[in-house]
What does this fold into?
Amino acid sequence: MKVREYKSLQFNHLQWQVFPLSEEAILLECDQSTPIQTIHICSKQIEEILGEDLLDIVTAYHSITVFSKFSMDELIQTLNGSIRQIAENKNEDSSSAIRIPICYDFAMDLDRIAVHTKFSKDEIIERHISATYQAIVIGFTPGFVYAEGLDQALSCPRLSNPRSSLPAGSVGIGGNQTGIYSLASPGGWNIIGRTPMKLFDKNLRPPMKLALGATYQFFSISKDEFESWES
Amino acid sequence: MGKLKVLKTSPLATVQDFGRFGYRRYGIPHCGAMDRVSMIHANTLVGNSEASAVLEYALAGMSFEVLDEIQVSLVGADMLVDDQLFGPKARVKKGSVLHLSKPKQNYAYLAIAGSLRAKIDFESYATDTKAGFGGIEGRTLKKGDVLHVDGSSPTDPQESPFVRAHEDITSIRIMKGPEWGTLKELPSTRTYQIDSSSDRMGIRLAGDPLEAEYQEISSSAVVPGTIQLPPNGIPIILMNDCQTTGGYPRIGKVLDSELGKLAQIKPGKSLRLLL
It folds into this structure.
């Protein structure tokens, strides 16, 4: 029982371990050192290769889970050895970054972050707004995006008691992770501000403004601008 | 057109169907009826298609005032019409009071002939109370809500024999999960009790811990039925409303065909997980 039972697969010059996750989901896992951007590209390519046969796909840090009608062997056969050009990730340059308004007047935990980081409030905001963030994983709630790019000096431990309800658009820092609460939900991250931009709209397809790999930057708005914002 | 008003609600009364498929890529949970077999049974009894939206409730009984004649069926509880016992189906006239007893197991299903007017989000009527999707305004039913039913059932009502065998210790069939290899003992060597904190998100168990080489995994996909092993060694079984990713080792998965049976095991009762 100590041996992991899996099959393996060569795809995009990467070695993947393959496991069944459910009757219709197959987990493809690659080495932990693989950059998330490479996983995003592989995930996109699997979508293209499987086309209509793909029912759903969940892309995570070192894994891609494929929901399809294919058996494990059929999926391995379809993907094995398939080598596609790993295109440069176009989103990486900051000129294509999505600009997201943020109002820092809605911060709930600036004091906490200040105590923890020993920066002044202005310094915290300055460091937060000058960074470029990249959407790397979706999870937690519908449309919630975990992002990379937080100035690590702003890392701040999660609240010991999560809030039972945060408004949609709350921008959070949890440990060294960051993200924007796409829907009103409970949450244990430090809230540094809020955006009036609707990042998740259930009536749109795709419902999310930030696709995996998308980069974004914040720009500061006043409370008045926040109230009158139309996204 | 049928119409009924909620007089007394149960804390977990929601509109459900087979749930959402294909949107886990956006972090959208599956939701849907916890016990599909009972849901299908209720629909079949009134002649609805198997996938029609139904009312699922738990923990306590419910009452309705019928404002326009309806034909209903109830699976998993007893039904009283103006204090008279009916079942499993009844035609209820305008002005009557329909009372549904507390579910005999955990979840009961009320089907109403025709199509229940509710919100569709991501191709499903299923209520997701956390995200506010589907059902009646994406929430649990409350006193005063009026449910509308359009049209009538498309087919003749069917009698469908459905009896779930009663077992003292329920055996639940599972398959191995990606982190099965971290286990030092087989899950089948344990008898677990259902913990009362179980809900639509997940089923918590009580029992002796399983020995495993614990490793935290980086957040990766999970599905309803995924058996997670947290550091305390006592498995948690994720259910319909679970998130799309999780960070605990996935030692196995309850087979889809067993999920309804599992959902109905009452708190305190025993089960075994068998490969």
About this structure: DSSP finds five helices and 14 strands in chain A. Chain A touches chain B at residues 1-6, 19-23, 25, 27, 29, 32, 55-63, 65, 67, 137-144, 183, 185, 202, 206-208 (CB under 8 Å). The CA atoms of residues 8 and 177 of chain A lie 31 Å apart. The first strand of chain A starts at residue 7 and ends at 11.
